[in-house]
């Protein structure tokens, strides 16, 4: 009887216990999440390790997989990226070496959409300030809360969604369900798709002017750098709020601080920043009516479970000789 060959997987991303157990039914697994080790692999060292340990499946979230990794690891068959973005992997080199590259589109769509709603509600109902008021033992007059923290509702408000990809669409669905009127701007999405979700297509300038809440869901790129600038903020009305859970460079921080300090807008919430962690000298730290969170939009147990399930399913398909569902370089098979 021939002995079953146990190919090996190296997982450097956070992974669920349930999916680790599932994967171990097929292969030996080394699990070293970068969040546990608090370090990213040097590409040269990573390539040497993959070769020494005969690794066939490499799963990453933040580590870089460059040409030297593929040159050093001839037995590598798949690189899985537990994100939607693929900028940390040399796709051309992977293809030339016959290595499949797959990813996890949509893994954090619902998480970021819910975070966006949470920030919108926190702004509209002044939840952080109300908590500080009670926790700081300042609540002495029973009516003070009604006087100081009267907010507004999302139902009946106009929500402007800039960027109508997976996350923008999910935010729109949730806001429509709450009774909001939704405007959407995305030059790459047909108007019929926007209308199909109960939203109304809008130019960016009109969206800024009409919205009570503006929420950003555009990719960070040179095209979207400082998309939200002083002229955009000047179009917003003084009672409006801005939420950014997309790219840190999308909002001009100097213009935002000026708009908050002048009362040009009522408040803002940021989960992402141009430089992370946020420097202690940043003017954002002292800006009024601003909620800051440490890039946790996708940080849920469900997000980890989703990308873990997607990665294991792809490895199972590869082992069984079936087409991969989320492969980004299908031509890898010709080189293999």
Give an overview of the whole structure.
With 336 residues, the protein is an alpha/beta fold. 38% of the residues lie in helices and 15% in strands. The protein has 15 helices and twelve strands. The strands form two sheets. Strands 8-7-6-9-10-11-12 form a seven-stranded parallel sheet, with helices on both faces. α1 (17-23) packs parallel to α14 (301-320) and α6 (109-125) crosses α9 (166-177). The radius of gyration is 23 Å and the shape is elongated. Mean pLDDT is 95; it is low at 1-5.
Précis, in short:
38% of the residues lie in helices and 15% in strands.
Task: Give me some keywords for this one.
336 residues, alpha/beta, 7-stranded parallel β-sheet, 5-stranded parallel β-sheet, 15 helices, 38% helix, disordered N terminus
Helix content: 25-40%
- Biggest sheet: strands, sense, closure? 7 strands, parallel
Spatial extent as radius of gyration: 23 Å
**Tertiary shape:** elongated
Structural class: alpha/beta
Instruction: Indicate the low-confidence ranges by residue numbers.
Output: 1-5
Give the H and E element order.
Answer: EHEHHEHEHEHHHEHEHEHEHEHEEHH
Number of E strands: 12
Q: Into which percentage range does the β-strand content fall?
A: 5-15%
What is the terminal separation in angstroms? 28 Å
SSE diagram, text form:
Elements: E1 8-11, H1 17-23, E2 28-31, H2 34-37, H3 43-52, E3 55-60, H4 67-72, E4 78-81, H5 91-96, E5 100-103, H6 109-125, H7 127-135, H8 144-148, E6 158-162, H9 166-177, E7 181-185, H10 191-196, E8 200-201, H11 204-210, E9 213-216, H12 230-235, E10 241-244, H13 253-262, E11 267-270, E12 290-292, H14 301-320, H15 332-335
Parallel strand pairs: 1-2, 1-3, 3-4, 4-5, 6-7, 6-9, 7-8, 9-10, 10-11, 11-12
Helix pairs in contact: 1-14, 6-9
